[in-house]
Amino acid sequence: MRSHAARYQEIAETLARHGLASLLDAAGLRFGNPRAAEHVRLALEELGPTFVKLGQVLSTRPDLIPEPFLTELAKLQDGARPVPAEEIHDVIRLELGADPADLFAWFQSEPLASASIGQAHLARLPDGTDVVVKVRRPGAVEQVEGDLEILRDLADRASRTWKAARAYDLRGLVQEFSRTLRAELDYVQEGRNAERFATNFARRPGVRIPRIFWDLTTPRVLTLERMSGMKITDLTALDEAGVDRKALAKSGATIMLQMIFDDRFFHADPHPGNLFVAPSGSISLIDFGMVGEVADDLADHLTTFLVAFTFQDPDALTASVLDLSATKGSIDREALHDGIVSFVSEYEGRPLREIGLTRLAPHLFSLFRAQHLQLPREIALIFKVLVVIEGIGVRLDPDFDLFAVLRPFVQQLLQKQMSFTSVARRLAQASTDAGGLLLELPGHVRRLLAIAETSGVDVHLRAAELEPLMRRAERIGDRVVAGMIAAALIGGVGDLVAGGKRWRSWRSALMGAGIAGIGTLLGYLLWTERRRPR
Q1: How many helices (H) and strands (E) in the chain?
Q2: Does this model's pTM top 0.90?
Q3: Where does 151-274 show beta strands of DSSP type E?
Q4: Is 109 helix (H, G, I), strand (E, B) or coil?
Q5: For residue 475, is pLDDT > 60?
Q6: Most buried in the list 24, 280, 323, 365, measured by CB within 10 Å?
Q7: Which one from 63, 269, 300, 401 is the annotated catalytic residue?
């Protein structure tokens, strides 16, 4: 395998050849060349599977990447030159312990599809079952791991010298991408994903998930039932087969929304090539390497956001966006609120079905980028899935209304939020968070007293430094708590400095009346300020 130095040189030369040398010193993505987005795509294609996958992942992140680049990155094709048949046979022999001719009634050496990580072959089991055998390319793991190490190094360097890299948590993004790509390298994990979908849809008609043949599956080889049917966007074939396209648009969207909101486990790459339709109208899904999972707290925040979005409430929408955000740094809340007010006013009074998510989403995500707001991976994937299924739905039925299909799911989520179990869960989490904060405060105060009793203390407080504490306190569920804690610290420490050594004999007063009284008063004032419309 080539050394990292040689790979670094190849990356630098590729970027320079496409006029992207400014990336080498992490100077940013402000290209004067109108074809810059195209050159980014071409450079990623030249750099191989890891960078193709990186571009594909970035194409799902409209909160990070502006529209011209999103469109171009979406064109990235995960194709590659086929691996010679004998090498594929060698992998199967090594992994499954026998030659393909002994394992299958027949095995097609010419690949059905060849991608950067693996390639797929048609085969038939001895019992007559048609299957697809996915085989990982020899050397794929080694190449990917080497490139991931380089990406981590570049992210570390950029984060030390480039403010934007720190604002977007570039290190965290690379770690997230590494986890995603490693999961796609493991065919056992993909098989488990497929079985989980099959379990979730076992009692729902109209959905087919391929069966996994575990005795012919390893991390490098995946054998699954072959799915057949018409491509979901092949309108001519659908019409000739007599498929009701209006009903198909609704059922296809419902399937994806059930994954997201009911099962909390969803297919994150539902492009038309992964959806096949039978003459009966049933839908078959394939390719389960990229999935998303929605935790309870994320589902709560998503519900609040969708309700605020539906009712076009700027204040509630601002609060819900802040709750959804994974940004670690400080946020200009007033600027975000002003942007959302402008966003809502532009579409005010118009039914959402007339506007469409495909048009709304880019505008909303431009606000996120302007404020350096970063969404959790799962939320970004959900938005991508919603945009994709709306696009497919409108193609099948020009009158398709995604929001009409979405509405019952949001209503159901609201009902779940108000259920006894959900309320009890949130109260338990709030108690844990509040208890943690209360347990930490005495230790911090004792350390402050020790400093004051020795050499004194200088206080330099900035709003940005209080932001992490504020955001943690907001998780408790009531923003007044955040205001009380922040104000208590400001008031308590301020009095500590003003009083000097007299606090040696008044520790209990500082712990009690000083923090509780002043903190509560200023907390109320801060709470009312935060609630005031801007």
Answers
A1: 24, 11
A2: no
A3: 207-208, 221-225, 230-231, 265-267
A4: coil
A5: no
A6: 365
A7: 269
